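Internal QA ticket QA-208
Title: Verify multi-chain structure generation after dependency bump
Assignee: T.L.

Test input:
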Amino acid sequence: MSPAQWDLPPELCCRPVAFVALTGLDVVYNAIHRAIWDAFCANRRADRVPISFKVLPGDNEYPKCRTKRTSYEWYIPKGILKTGWMNKHLNLVPALVVLFYELDWDDPQWKEKQSECATKVEIVRTSLQGRNTKVAVVLIQKKTPLPPGEDLVASERASALCGACDLSGKSLFVLPHTDHLVGYIIRSDFLFLNKHQFKMGFFSELKQDTQNALKYYRTAYSLVHELRAHETNMLEIKTMAGFINYKICRLCFQHNTPLDAIAQFRKHIDLCKKKIGSAELAFEHTAWMSKQFQSFGDLFDEAIKLGLTAIQTQNPGFYYQQAAYYAQERKQQVGQLCSHEPGVGYPAPDPLETTSGALDFYGQRPWRQGHQSIDPPDSEKEKQGILALQVKERDIPHSELIIALLSNAVAQFKKYKCPRMKSHLMVQMGEEYYHAKDYTKALKLLDYVMCDYRTERWWSLLTSILCTALKCSYLMGQVKDYITYSMELVGRASILPEEQKSRIEKNLIKVLMNEVPEPEPDCDPLSVKTAQSLWSDRISLAGSNEFTIEVQDYVPFVQCKAKFLSPSFHIDEPVQLHVYVRADCPHPVRFSKLCVSLSNQEYNQYCLLEDASKGKDILEPSTQENMCLVPGKTRKYCFKFVAKTEDVGKKIEITSVGLMLGRETARYVYLNWRGGWGDAASSHETLQACRSFKKRTRFPEQQVDWDTVTIQSSTMIISRVPKISVQLTHEPPALTNEMYCMIVTIQSGEDTVAKDIKLTAGLKPGQDANLTQSTQITLNGTEVCDDSHPALLPDIPLGDLHPGQKPLYIHCVSTGSRILLFHVAYSVSATVEGKDITCKCHKDETVTLETVVPYEVAMKFVSSKFEHLERVYVDIPFLLMMDILSASPWPIELVNSEVQLASSMNAIDQPQSQVEGVTLQTSECASECFLLKCPPVQNGTTFAGDHANIVIIVVIILAVNRHLPSYVLELPSFGRVRESLPVRYHLENRTGLVQDVEITVEPSDAFMFSGLKQVRMRILPGAEQEMLYNFYPLMAGYQVLPQLNINLLRFPNISNQLLRRFLPSRIFVKPQGRNGDTSIEAA
Amino acid sequence: EVLCCANYPLYIRSVPTQGELKFHYTVHTSLDVVEEKISGVGKALADQRELYLGLLYPTEDYKVYGYMTNSKVKFVIVVDSSNTSLRDNEIRSMFRKLHNSFTDVMCNPFYNPGDPIQSKAFDSIVSTMMVQAF
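Actual output:
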């Protein structure tokens, strides 16, 4: 029996197709025949019925057919299925033999050819010897046949040929050798197929009638299990059941009923699981089971490739996994059953040898083929046979089989999102590689999955993997891996019992001493020997004795936490750093070096603890004890250093903490905690610890509760606290445009001289951009700032500190609040930890300054009658009224005021300030008044006024009417009752046009008058007209004058009202005096 | 065999104790299916989700059942496939009992959620359940 005995025969696995033999074709020498053959075989597309063709010589020897029994009465079956049977029907016995023969209907030698053809048919018939195989004849003709019925010769000769060959008319074909070869051949395919007739259900499948085939298979399957099963034929029954099961499942998948397939398979497994057969050959059963699962997995996988969808819980991976499981079991059984004494060899006359070299029936024992009774015929022979099988089994590479199955399963589970299942299988693969002594591969696989279990915190599983990995690394003499795995196994993540941990720790210490560790238990003794020599080689090997282990990927037995004592340190105090180290191994462990690396590496030298015994002199005897880690106790190491002045404002971070185990003279390993703390398990532990409600147990002095140690892995170096005071003296609010004075007083409280004091004063950066433009700072208060002055005066050197003051002027152009910054920087020398350093200190002082408007200036234009003016007129004088209202909280003194007139305007008298020297209290108001006149031509006026030392620019646009006549009235300042009052109106036309004027005088109650009451006249350009009236007042007091209405006929739009503005409308009439009685008397 | 876990074991116990490691692997791998089942349920339905997850996956020798509380603590029960006395309903009630007992554990002010369960009451519940079932 070959090792591949459990493999399914290939003819079982392939899809059965009908076998058709073609004879009479000479494909080698005849081009036409070749073309026919190619047409049959070459272009077989899916639309054509699957048939396998073979060219055979006419007298081919077909397998002999045994004489059929007429009854089963005295038939003792020797077995169920002969081994050659399927192959016979697939490849040897054709379902149809086709005889090709070149013969045209009108061949001149028809008779001879006909008899030759008949002979050939006869030869084929004879060689088939009564098998139920059809024979067909194909005539290859060179001429295109005429339509049927027309060629009388043809039909006559065809029937003659059929008679001669003993063929039915349906089995005779004509294949004209024309262009349509392929078309003809496709048709003939079908014809051949339809003629297949097989006697057995098994052949249904050959006919592609899979439904029927399935039915037959199912019956066959149940029949197989109805057979009487005993030890001798168990294997045969199982083999057959396996075959039929395979066929059924395959067809179910083919019919797209995967659930049926799975159900059938389950049934099959349940039925066969307990049919172990011979106990001595139990491995045969597990091998068979493994094969069952594997082949079902293959079928399933194949179906998926053809479009079936599988799910997570039902995918081929499970079957491969189970197959692997049985393979493992098989291997175990082999270990138990086949561990013969060394003397026992392979039995001398090979009981597995058969005369034919192969078995007649599937699943039978070679030494008793065809034997059907319950008891073995020859017990000695049986023993020899079993021994032979066992010996053979021993040589089978079980691990390889298992690994192949497992890797199949891994590939499947990867596909169906089962990461954990995948890891599990990979662990199994790793273990199998370990058993197969392929330690490199084992270690690679185990190392790969280890981190999954570590992050998932399945310590029990991790421990078991680590143990295997440790064995591998030991056997390969891999120092670094050995150290890494031991460290983890000794540590808190491992659930190993204490004595195991202790053993491993002792080994670890040996390795660190550069000695050979004790072998791991349960290792292959042969491999241990090689390993021991490997390890001793390592000892003599110089160099490569330094290892660094990045702790964050593991859970080693030493834990570390490093922290700065404060999130920030002033430059004049030492930076303090504590490192807490704890070991959780069973025995105390000594380390030789502890070093902290910081982001600024210059400080690293201060954070170093080294084994003093290695050095020349022992400085502190306590150091020795100090560097020993007692299990379960937390050790604290303090480091201190003075930061450099350049580092002020910078962050110092702990980049890593390194702990050296072992000696530099022997072998040592650095445990490196990146960031100063934490391994693969500590983040979760920290979380749990902070959640914990457990009462913190009070620890005695010098001992720390590990969980309460918090992490502070970075610190800021900040400048020294300044011992100076900055005082600001000023009186807010500031007034707009004021040169606002602030006095900065700096007072030093330093013990030594404060040097290089620099003051930066001004607007605090980062405020509104408009503020920057509207704020100016200067040290010189005597002149007004302009835009050239900055908003912030940086670094005003003040020299060494002599306590003093510094006046500063601020010019705020706009109102609103602004923040001012006063930054005083200086340096001072200080002594820290016996070190002199020059500290730069600075102090910031900010103040919010409110700026208000000191006074408001209101201006208005009024007429000479103090009436409000919308517009001013050329040559007509008007008044500019100026009101200055103080808004300042302080009294303000008006130094001067000035009206700056634009050229378009003239002052009628010399404009002098009328408010000079006036002091205004809060909300007091000062007014002044200027008489102005616009000369003609100009139409825009700009006023500029200057008051005190503040500039206000007022722009007023005035519209001036240029073309109107102007009127002048000569009127006495007062009248007297019953005294004649002469009034003269001057009308002057200043326009370039002749003006038609209508003048009317309306009567008034208070006056009688004489003169023209209504008149029309014409005034030439530039001419003047006088109107003289005599008014006679009747009443005393303010009286309304008779109203003069002027109508400009050419400009009807010019309102009378407008013109009247310039005319006085009232006059004061004095009563008659006492002494004036004379006039009354005279009257 | 019983276990409660939040992807790492809070409590794990098995009878018989030999071959324990294999059970641990079985439970660990079953979390794949639990995760897949949970993620399969839509967000909206997550609240109405039934806690009992049913048979997680078939193996030749064991049946693995799953259950997940609303706080995402998972319970897994592994029973021998030959044990036919345990039907779906029995498994359900076992889970319910476990859940109740687990709730009691959580209510203990001295229990820190996330720590391995070391409760005598829980132990005894599990023990009685195991005695009944196996």
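Spot checks passed. Chain A has a mean pLDDT of 70.
Status: verified.
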